[in-house]
Automatic annotation (TrEMBL):
<protein>
    <recommendedName>
        <fullName>RING-type domain-containing protein</fullName>
    </recommendedName>
</protein>
<dbReference type="InterPro" id="IPR013083">
    <property type="entry name" value="Znf_RING/FYVE/PHD"/>
</dbReference>
Length: 254
């Protein structure tokens, strides 16, 4: 009888232990879920903050890069009027001459600071300065100069300066024509006379771009010599002009 009671008690103990273990596991599972949810929420918040910081850092870097790039850009002076010269004022003054242009054929003097000038500018200055004196002097600090030589290193640096196309803010109607009284400008193809070229490149390539590649350069109609009334148009508008005035061009051919 005692054995049976003991066995029953043992079974009851096992049953209670099983229930207690199940209850413990369920409680533990709930705690794990709560911890996981909390950790996930924390990770999400951390990730969000990190992404926000990353975005701010990226924006800051882009703004800084743009500012640095903008400081390197300057407009190459091909304009003839004083207004255009003020508009296209060079921002990078590191290689400026007294003429306020980027040095052309830069000459480096052997003065204490090694000043740099355009070859043409320094020759003109010395001709004026040496009227009553055979010695050559630096125009900046008035030191006596014994050596003035071309600086190929500075020329390479200047050639790599980034410039905008002169047509980035010009007007085609301002471009001079050979016969302004007899020739008309095609207003049907250039309703907005303001043209903008987005090209930016090294100074050494600007001439080739202006003459051969710029879509906003002013060109004449190939049939102008036969009597086409359109004098100047944008290079990008030439195909449209040829199509639009096809019949008129055919009538001009003898």
């Amino acid at each position: 009888m005692n054995f049976c009671l003991t066995l029953a008690n043992f079974r009851q103990l096992i049953f209670c232990s099983k229930n207690w273990i199940m209850f413990y596991l369920i409680s533990l599972q709930k705690k794990i879920i709560i911890i996981h949810t909390s950790a996930k929420s924390t990770i999400t918040r951390i990730s969000f903050k990190f992404n926000l910081i990353s975005v701010r850092v990226i924006v800051f870097l882009l703004q800084t890069q743009q500012k640095c790039v903008d400081e390197r850009y300057f407009s190459f002076k091909y304009s003839r009027s004083e207004t255009d010269k003020k508009k296209n004022k060079i921002k990078n003054k590191k290689y400026h001459c007294r003429c306020e242009e980027v040095c052309r054929s830069p000459m480096e003097l052997n003065c204490s600071k090694g000043h740099i000038f355009c070859e043409e500018c320094i020759e003109k200055y010395w001709k004026m300065d040496n009227a009553n004196d055979d010695e050559k002097h630096c125009p900046v600090d008035d030191e006596t100069i014994t050596v003035a030589q071309r600086s190929l290193f500075i020329q390479r640096c200047i050639d790599q300066l980034l410039v905008r196309c002169p047509n980035h803010q010009t007007k085609i109607k301002d471009k001079p024509t050979k016969e302004p009284t007899d020739i008309k400008i095609d207003d049907t193809l250039t309703k907005d006379n303001t043209v903008f070229c987005t090209w930016i490149g090294p100074l050494s390539e600007v001439q080739d771009h202006i003459i051969n590649k710029c879509e906003f350069r002013g060109i004449a109609c190939p049939f102008q010599i036969l009597g086409c009334s359109v004098a100047t148009m944008l290079s990008k508008d030439l195909p449209s002009h040829i199509i639009q005035f096809q019949c008129k061009h055919h009538s001009l051919v003898p």
